[in-house]
Amino acid sequence: MIQMVMMIVVGLLVGAAHYTLAIAYERADVGSLEPFNFLRLVIAALVGYFAFQESPDIWIWIGVLVIVASTTFIAYRKAVLQRTNRG
């Protein structure tokens, strides 16, 4: 019964998180909100480390590098294109 209550609470919290994210995307530019998605990666790694004693291996760090590099490049490229379209 305790696990069922915990699952319901987690479901409600995740639902609330998605709802607030949808409202944030409605009110702000996606590019300004996207760095907060990186925070989920950090939190997931910390929870895995502290709650489950999981140590990230080399493939996790390679994945993190690919994600950060690609989104940084996309944001930079978008900024450059916006500057050239204005001028």
Write the layout of secondary structure elements.
Layout: H1 2-27, H2 30-33, H3 35-52, H4 58-86
Descriptive report:
The chain has two domains: 1-28; 34-87. 89% of the residues lie in helices and 0% in strands. The protein has four helices and no strands. The chain has helices at 2-27, 30-33, 35-52, 58-86. The longest helix has 29 residues, at 58-86.
Quick take:
The protein has 87 residues and is mostly helical. The protein has four helices and no strands.
List the domain count as a whole number.
2
Q: Please compute the radius of gyration using only Cα atoms.
A: 18 Å
Secondary structural class: mainly alpha
In DSSP terms, counting alpha (H) and pi (I) runs of 4 or more, how many helices?
4
Oligomer: single chain
Low-pLDDT stretches are: none
Brief descriptors of the model:
87 residues; mainly alpha; 0% strand
